[in-house]
Amino acid sequence: MIGLRTLSALPNLIGVLIITFLITRALPGDPAAFFAGAAGSQEAVEQIRAKLGLDKSLVEQFAYYVRDLARGDLGTALSTGRPVLDEILGRLPASLELTLSALMLATAIAIPLGVLAATRPGSWIDHMCRALTTAGVSLPTFFTGLLLAYIFYYRLGWAPAPIGRLDPYATPPATVTGFYLIDAALAGDLDVFIASARQLILPALTMALFVLAPLARMTRAAMLGVLSADFVRTARAYGLSRFTVLYRYAFRNALLPVVTTLGMVFSFLLGSNVLVEKVFAWPGIGSFAIESLMASDYAPIQGFVLTMGALYVLLNLAIDILYRIVDPRVEVSG
Amino acid sequence: MSGPQPPLLAVSALSVEFRTRSGKVRALDNVSLTLRKGELVALVGESGSGKSVTAFAIMRVLDPAARITSGSLHFGGMDLLAMKDAELAELRGRELSMIFQNPRAALNPIRRVGRQIEDVLLRHAAVPRQALRAQAIAALTQVRIPDPEKRYAAYPHELSGGMCQRIMIAMALACRPALLIADEPTTGLDVTTQAAILDLMRELAHARGMAMLLITHDLGLAAEYCDRVVVMHAGHVVETAPTSRLLSLPRHPYSAKLIAATPRVDRRLDDLAAIAGNLPDLRRADLPPCRFSERCDRYTPTCAAPLPSNTVAAEHAVACHHPL
Ligand SMILES: Nc1ncnc2c1ncn2[C@@H]1O[C@H](COP(=O)(O)OP(=O)(O)OP(=O)(O)O)[C@@H](O)[C@H]1O
Ligand code: SF4
Ligand SMILES: [Mg+2]
What we know:
heterodimer, A: mainly alpha, MetI-like fold, about 0% strand, B: alpha/beta, globular, binds adenosine-5'-triphosphate
C-alpha cells in the first residue's frame, strides 16, 4: 500500500522537473552577459552562451538537462566553480536542521496550547490562544527575524550574533548526519552542542512563530469539534477517565486535521527558509539560492527549486502515510 | 404490585434550558418519571419532544450549552445532581448505561470496537489485563454477534448499522447495569433485526432484573415490549400509564392522536391520522402552559391556567384540563 502510494508520487516529481526547467529559463537576466562582464565583447558573450548550451532550442536544453540529472549532474555553480549537487548536499542539512527544529518548536507550543484552549473555553489560556492566532498570523518572517535579533542580540545580548550555525572560533562536530545538534551529541561534545543550540534558537523561533498561529488554531478547532462529537459523549457516559476521554477519544481524533495542517505548515516553513537564512546568515540552501539568483546563476537555482520540489513531494508522501497510520478509514487507493 | 417500593430512578420536576444564539430553548419543563427495578418503560413522543434530552440529563452528559434549571434526579436513592464527577464516573457505565441514538457516530471511529468495550471493562469491572480480550469477546457473544473474534478487531465504519447497534448494546451490558437507557435502539434497522435486538434486550433485562427505559417514537414497539408508557410532547410529560391501559383508554388528547397515528396490522393505511400542526417553537417567550393547546381541538380558555397533573387511575396520570 505504501509502495503504491510512493509510485503515485512519480508524476509529481516529473512535473517538478519540467516546472523547474521552465522557471529558470523564464528568469530575467542573461547569465552569459553577466559572466562576460560589463566589458565583455559580443563574441565573448556568444562563446559563453555556447559553452552553457544556451544557444540550443528549449527542447534540446531540456533533454540535456534530464540526461545530466539522471547522472546526478546538476551542473556547476559558476560563482564557486563547484558541482551544484555537492553545494546543495553540503547545505541541505543546515536548512533541514533549522526547519525541523522550527517545526518541533511550533508543534510543542501550538498543540498543547490548542488542546488546553479547547478543553477550557473562556479561560485565560483560551484568550491567549485566540489573541495569538488572530494577531500573530501575518507577521512576515524577515521582520520577526530582524526584530528578534534586534531585541535578543543587540539590546539584551542574550542570543549570540546572527552569524550562522556556529561562531567562527568553534569547530563544527565531525559530520555524521550534518545536523550539528545530533552530531555534537554523538561526539559527546557538550560545548559545541550548546553553542549550536544557541545559534539555532533565534532563527528556529522566527520560523516557529510564523506557523504557530495556523497550527494552534487548527488544533483548537479540531479539538472543539471532536469534544462535542457523539463518541466523546459516549466515552463520558461510560465513566471513562478524563485522560482516556481527552486523549484516547478526543485528541487522537482531533489529530487527523492537525496532521494535514502540519504538512501545509511544513511547506510554509520550507518556503520561508530563504529569507530567514539570509537574515541569520544561515549557510543553508535558501541563502545559496538567493546568492545565485543575484548572480543570474541558473544551475544552482535549478538545483534549489528541484530540491524544494522533491522535498514537497516527499513531505506529502510522508503526511499521507502518517494519515493512513492514524486513520483506519482512509481507503487503500492506487 | 406489592406495597410501595422506592423507585430505582426518580426524575422529578426536571427543567432543562439550552442557551443558543437565537434565545433560550426550554427543552424540558417539569418532567417527572420513575422506573422500578426490573421494569421496562417506554418514553414516546414525536421527534423533538425532548426524549434524548431527558436521557442525557439523567446520564449527566448534556451539552455545555444546557442548564438544568430545576428539579431533581435520584438513582438508587442517590442524588445524581449533587454527585461529584468522580462519583458519577464510578456509576456511569457500571450501574447506569445508555445506548445512543446513532450508534455509528456514538462509537470512536478510529478505535477497534473490541478495544472500546475493553475500555469500559477496564474502567469498571476489575478485569485483569490478560482476561480483557476474552471478556470483551464474551460481551460480543452475549449479544449474538456472529464471528465475535473477527468483529472484535473491526472499526465502526467496517460494520453495518445493526452491527454497530449490537456493539453498543454489548458495551452497555458488559458491566451488568441496573438501568439501561436505550435511545431509539432500532431506528433504521429492518424489521427482523429490530425484533431480534429488542427480544434480546428484553431477555437480558428479565434474566438480570435490569430496568430499561426504551426511548422510541414507535408506539407499536412500546406496546410490544414495555410495562408502562410515558408520553412526551414538546418537553412536557403529558401522560403516564400502564401500556395496555394507555392503548385502550388514552386520556390525553395528544396520546389519543399518537395512537391513532400508529400503524397496526388490523388497520388500513389510509385510516392513519397525521397529527395536525407542529411542535411549538421552544424558544418562544409566550409558550402556553399547555404546549399542546395550539394543536388541540378540545382547547377552552381554562387551558390557559397552569397544567394540573390528574391521577385518573392507579399509575395513570394525565396533564390536561379536559382529559378524554
Ligand atoms: N444542543 C442543543 N441546543 C439547542 N437545542 C437543543 C439542543 N439539543 C436539543 N435541543 C432541543 O431540545 C428539544 C428536544 O430534543 P431531543 O433531541 O431531546 O428530541 P427527541 O425527542 O430525542 O427527538 P428525536 O426523536 O428526533 O430523537 C428540541 O426542540 C431540540 O431543538
Ligand atoms: S389542557 Fe386543554 S389544550 Fe391542553 S391538551 Fe388538554 S384540552 Fe388540549
Ligand atoms: Mg432523540
